[in-house]
Design brief:
Layout (H helix, E strand, L loop, with lengths): L1 E5 L4 H12 L3 E6 L18 E5 L14 E4 L6 H6 L1 H22 L2 E7 L26 H21 L3 E6 L2 E2 L10 H10 L4 E4 L5 E3 L1 E2 H13 L5 E2 L2 E2 L5 E2 L7 E2 L4 E3 L4 E3 H12 L5 E4 L14 H7 L7 H15 L1
Helix pairs in contact: 1-6, 3-4, 5-7, 5-9, 7-9
The chain binds nicotinamide-adenine-dinucleotide and uridine-5'-diphosphate (UDP).
Length: about 325
């Protein structure tokens, strides 16, 4: 396959570039480096099946030659980044998604959108099934990211329904691992860097809010399974908005074109992740409690029944193991 990855120089995008190259595919990576880094793809430069275009995906998009698939991963993803770049975040979710869908239509390519657990906002249902519509404040500072991704999902489904484009949507839950930027502001990278440098760990709020953390290798395996799955794949199983299984006769089966959660269902508090990082790094570091950012979700945990049923996917790397690998990475780069 010849695959275009937007945001390919970012944390997840660069791991996807590697995984596709390893499997013998051709990769066209497009990125404007607004949050990504040349270092993430430096090892691929010069590879005969890899090419790179420095470009803003919101501008008119032209790619020479055929494309079999487009993976739209361009977007600031860390709350610190999207709060600093609110308009660029809205534009890449809206205009960038429109441009990449148009390109997919012109090239008759399969399209995969990187969506997010943030579409559930501050969820009133835990864990979150894909059938849950979410609880998002559109005008809060976080709204720029949540609404951009919700618009991107709506646009993707419209291209699927109206133009018959073969689309897939992955709702990614918090993912961590090597190549996160040391200063990107996300909790795992912040805590590891702080612990390695002997600085206090910055816990926002009282640290009782929860998250569920997926190791990058597990996520990449799930995304590629979704990209490669047959377009007529479906399951009869359905869940209602609270996550209970239902089988109403009038509901169509869940298909590969419906959004799919990928993440690790092990849920822990932010205090819990702080303790684990301190223990694994092996330092004694105090906690520095800071104010909770506006509309920070209280809970987050993926319901991954759909991914299991449709893709046979579930995470394999446990949190301690994934954290050890990530700590090793940060020890080398700091
Ligand atoms: P990242 O910031 O490392 O990567 C995003 C990449 O997109 C960067 O390389 C950046 O330079 C590029 N980019 C942004 N705007 C662009 C534009 N207008 N034109 C071209 N390139 C642009 O973040 P990440 O964690 O790798 O996230 C990748 C995708 O996955 C994002 O769409 C994000 O919303 C989604 N996601 C990630 C997570 C996670 O936990 N990592 C969770 C949910 C969703
Ligand atoms: N958080 C924290 N300290 C930090 C960074 C984040 O306590 O230094 C908290 C943040 O308030 C949130 C959780 O950790 O409750 C996860 O934050 P992150 O920025 O990693 O991603 P989010 O899940 O909010 O998108």
């Amino acid at each position: 396959m010849r695959v275009l990855i937007t945001g390919g120089a970012g944390f997840l995008g660069s791991h996807l570039c590697d995984a596709l190259i390893e499997r013998g595919h051709q990769v066209v990576c497009l990125d404007n480096f607004c949050t990504g880094r040349p270092d993430n793809i430096a090892h691929l430069m010069g590879h005969e099946r890899f090419s790179f275009i420095k470009y803003n995906v919101c501008d008119y998009l032209h790619i020479d030659g055929p494309l079999d698939a487009i993976m739209h991963f361009a977007s600031p993803a860390s709350p610190q980044d999207y709060l600093e770049m609110p308009i660029a975040t809205l534009k890449v979710g809206a205009l960038g998604t429109h441009k990449t869908l148009g390109l997919a239509k012109a090239k008759n390519a399969r399209f995969l959108l990187a969506s997010t657990s943030e579409v559930y906002g501050d969820p009133l249902v835990n864990p979150q099934p894909e059938s849950y519509w979410g609880n998002v404040n559109p005008i809060s500072p976080r709204g720029v990211y949540d609404e951009a991704k919700r618009f991107a999902e709506a646009m993707t489904m419209a291209y699927h329904r109206y133009h018959g484009l073969d689309t897939r949507i992955v709702r990614i839950f918090n993912t961590y691992g090597p190549r996160m930027r040391p200063n990107d502001g996300r909790v795992v990278s912040n805590f590891i860097v702080q612990a390695l440098q002997g600085k206090p760990l910055t816990v926002f709020g009282d640290g009782t809010q929860t998250r569920s953390f997926c190791y990058v290798d597990d996520l990449v395996r799930g995304i590629l399974a979704l990209l490669m799955a047959d377009s007529d794949k479906s399951i009869e199983q359905r869940t209602d908005r609270a996550g209970f299984l239902t089988t109403p006769k009038e509901s169509p089966p869940e298909s590969i074109h419906d959004p799919i959660n990928l993440g690790n269902p092990r849920e822990l508090t932010v205090n819990g992740i702080a303790e684990l990082v301190v223990q694994l790094v092996g330092t004694k570091t105090p906690i520095d409690y800071r104010p909770l950012p506006a509309d920070d979700p209280r809970v987050r945990r993926p319901d991954i029944r759909r991914a299991k049923a449709l893709l046979g996917w579930e995470p394999r790397v446990d949190l301690e193991d994934g954290l050890r690998r990530t700590i090793e990475y940060f020890r080398k780069v700091l």
